[in-house]
Design brief:
Blueprint: H1 6-22, H2 31-49, H3 53-59, E1 62-87, E2 90-117, H4 120-128, E3 132-133, E4 138-140, E5 142-145, E6 148-150, H5 153-156, E7 160-169, E8 180-184
Parallel strand pairs: 4-7
Antiparallel strand pairs: 1-2, 2-7, 2-8, 3-8, 5-6
Domain Ysc84 actin-binding: 99-181
Pfam families: Ysc84 (PF04366)
Keywords: Signal
C-alpha cells in the first residue's frame, strides 16, 4: 500500500473542514442577533445545569462562548462552529472555531464550549492574535459529579479555562485542544 503524501493529507483535512463549514449548523445566515441568542441560551443552560460555572463567569475577564460545534470524521475529520466573545456581559467580537484531525475516527457529534479568560493578559493575547490556537495552556474544568462542575484551585489560577458541555452524537471525546479561533463578521 502506498503511503499517503503530505499534500494528500492536507487536501483531505482542508476538504473535510470546508465541508463542515458549509454544513447548516443553524448559525450562518441569520447574523449577529441569531448568534447572540444562541450564546445567551448556552449560558443559561450552563447556569441551570452547572451552577459552578457562575463562579468562573464572575471571576473571568472575558468569555468566548461557542454554542454549537459540529464535529465529524471518517479517517479525516474536522469541526466547525461560531460564537461570541463577551466582556462584562457584552458581545465585543464574533469568532469561528475550526479543527482538523486524522486517525481512527468514525462518526459525528455536536457540543458547546466556553473559554473563560481569567487574566487580562490572556484575553489581550487572544484578541490581538490573527488566529489563536488552543493548546496545552488551556485547563479543563471537568464534570465529575453529576451536575456539579469542578474547578480545582490550580485550574482556577490558569489563564484560560475550558468547559465543554452538551455533547450529543456518536463520536467520543470533545476537546478544544488544537482548535483555531478566528475573528469573523457574522
Amino acid at each position: 500500500m502506498k503511503p499517503m503524501s503530505r499534500r494528500a493529507l492536507l487536501g483531505g483535512v482542508a476538504a473535510t473542514t470546508l465541508a463542515l463549514a458549509a454544513c447548516g449548523n443553524g448559525v450562518g445566515s441569520e447574523g449577529a442577533a441569531k448568534l447572540d441568542a444562541r450564546v445567551d441560551a448556552a449560558l443559561n443552560y450552563l447556569d441551570v445545569n452547572f451552577p459552578g460555572t457562575r463562579d468562573l463567569q464572575q471571576k473571568s475577564v472575558g468569555m468566548l462562548v461557542m454554542p454549537l460545534i459540529t464535529e465529524a470524521g471518517f479517517g479525516f475529520g474536522g469541526s466547525y462552529g461560531r460564537g461570541a466573545l463577551r466582556v462584562n456581559g457584552i458581545t465585543v467580537d464574533y469568532y469561528s472555531a475550526a479543527q482538523a484531525s486524522f486517525g481512527l475516527q468514525v462518526g459525528a457529534q455536536q457540543y458547546a464550549h466556553v473559554l473563560y479568560f481569567m487574566t487580562e493578559e490572556a484575553l489581550a493575547e487572544f484578541r490581538a492574535s490573527s488566529g489563536w490556537a488552543a493548546g496545552a495552556d488551556v485547563e479543563y474544568a471537568v464534570n465529575d459529579r453529576g451536575a456539579n462542575l469542578s474547578a480545582e484551585t490550580t485550574t482556577a489560577l490558569s489563564p484560560v479555562i475550558a468547559v465543554v458541555f452538551g455533547q450529543a452524537g456518536l463520536l467520543a471525546g470533545a476537546s478544544v485542544e488544537g482548535t483555531k479561533y478566528s475573528r469573523i463578521i457574522p
